[in-house]
Specification:
487 residues; alpha/beta; Rossmann fold; 2 domains; 6-stranded mixed sheet; 5-stranded parallel sheet; 16 helices; 17 strands; 22% strand
């Protein structure tokens, strides 16, 4: 079957196992073949759940409860596997094979595409998304943004009738985001593919889709129509609901800078890198880095995908050893520990340097949101009442209180990100290193996160944040460090 696929939902809903609240409910929606749809809604409104359902990968009765009817080309999506191509919110979750070319080819092979066609499709898809590495390059050596391009290339190579993209540019630098969007739009137009995109970068897609559908957190559809009509008629309602609206600025309250800004952590002629799979020596990602993290100040780390920003963040945080040069903690931060954070034990890191990884799932440890937040305070030996007093305000502040008893792995991407930021802040470290802290956030949760980060900074914490979010950098950064890849 070729051409675009048609999606019909009649009173459809889904509730994940262990949840009292429906992720999506009372949904009546028809997406015609070949339409390009931007799917919006507040964080936790069920956008990712709906995409997974349309792709036929949501699960069975053990994973949750369903209601109503959802059809893809007239049949349940579970019976139309291969008709839809899905790029997940977490690109790591879609990396299957060890080499880039093999991973892109994986979906085609499962669909029984003739071998002589697969190589051409793989090369075409890799070029279309600007992946920029050899087909035999190890997937384990890719940055988060490169993995996002890899996942998209794999979906494009399948040439599905329905292409479903969940935050496809969240980890990409601004130029890369435009490149990927253009590749998707051109590919969908050429093949007549039906396209559904979930994306908080609304400005990036608004002029390139036929239709905007906004899910209501209370069930059903909040708004549906042409982009100009939806954003023109419902701008205030959407903004109040947390939807990013083109032309409606979202700002954060930022406290004034005051007092001295003592250096807590410094990088001196630093080269950073990681060992690729099977290699004994690390591959240098970036070098010649000099940086200082100062009490009560925010350093923003920016640069192109693959430049080594996340590797630098992990090195500054004492989680990766420098390839060369040093990371040195000031006396006030080390407090009797070694000068080099890489030599600190995990308990020593708890109150000194807290780290939020680029991938939230890499630091989830428990089966309840509340327990996740309590891990650090309990490790510090805090009494139960003190633990509750520490974590309850964070749950409320970041919109996680109603999810306190939920398994963290079932949260949306934006909810997982807020949780991992909260877990780091719960131990009140002197230095906080954040990798893409506003990933997957709606307008309301973006503001709350930005203001919380600045409050932590104003209390004297040194903040280092890796970000492709120009609004966040403009609002919070006192200094900027642009990282370029080693050549």
């Amino acid at each position: 079957m070729s051409g675009g696929a048609r999606v019909v939902a009649r009173g459809w809903g889904w509730r994940h196992a262990g949840r009292r609240r429906w992720a999506v409910s009372s949904l009546d929606l028809t997406i015609e073949a070949g339409e390009r749809v931007l799917l919006l809604g507040a964080s936790g409104a069920g956008k990712s759940t709906l995409l997974q359902a349309m792709a036929g990968v949501l699960g069975d009765a053990e994973d949750g409860d369903g209601a109503g009817e959802l059809l893809l080309d007239g049949v349940p999506p579970l019976r139309a596997r291969g008709r839809a191509g899905l790029v997940l919110q977490d690109p790591d979750a879609q990396v299957v094979l060890a080499r880039v070319g093999d991973d892109i080819a994986f979906g085609c092979e499962n669909l029984g595409v003739p071998a002589h066609e697969i190589h051409a499709r793989v090369r075409e898809a890799a070029d279309a998304v600007g992946l920029g590495v050899a087909l035999d390059h190890p997937t384990a050596a890719l940055s988060g943004g490169q993995k996002q391009r890899l996942a998209l290339a794999g979906a494009l190579a399948m040439r599905p009738g329905l292409l479903l993209l969940d935050e496809p540019t969240a980890n990409l630098d601004p130029a890369g985001a435009v490149e990927v969007r253009d590749a998707v739009v051109a590919g969908a137009a050429q093949a007549g593919t039906t396209l559904v995109v979930v994306e908080h970068r609304v400005d990036l897609w608004a002029q390139h889709v036929d239709r905007v559908v906004v899910l209501s957190a209370e069930g059903g559809v909040l708004a549906d129509g042409a982009p100009s009509a939806v954003f023109g008629a419902h701008a205030q309602t959407l903004s109040d609901a947390g939807v990013w609206v083109p032309g409606v600025p979202v700002t954060a309250r930022v406290a004034p800078r005051s007092g001295t800004a003592d250096v807590l952590l410094a990088a001196e002629d630093l080269a950073v890198g990681r060992r690729a799979f099977g290699e004994r020596m690390p591959v240098v990602a970036a070098s010649g880095i000099r940086a200082a993290l100062r009490a009560g100040r925010t350093l923003a780390v920016t640069g192109e995908n693959g430049a080594g920003k996340s590797t630098l963040a992990m090195t500054l945080a004492g989680l990766l050893a420098p390839v060369s040069g040093r990371v040195i903690a000031a006396d006030g931060l080390r407090a009797g520990a070694a000068a080099d954070p890489i030599r600190w034990r995990s308990r020593q890191l708890l109150t000194r340097i807290g780290t939020v990884f680029q991938d939230p799932e890499h630091q989830l440890l428990t089966t309840r949101v509340r327990d996740e937040l309590a891990v650090g305070p309990r490790a510090l030996g805090m009494a139960p009442d003190a633990v509750a007093a520490r974590i309850d305000p964070l749950l409320e502040r970041l919109g996680l209180a109603r999810l306190a008893d939920v398994n963290p792995f079932t949260l949306s991407g934006g909810e997982k990100r807020r949780l991992t930021v909260a877990t780091v802040l719960a131990t009140r470290p002197q230095v906080v290193v954040l990798d893409e802290p506003t990933y997957g956030q709606d307008a309301r949760t973006w503001r709350e996160l930005a203001e919380l980060i600045d409050e932590v900074r104003a209390a004297g914490t040194a903040v280092c944040m890796v970000s492709h979010d120009p609004g966040l950098v403009a609002a919070l950064a006192d200094e900027r460090l642009v990282v370029t890849a080693a050549r």
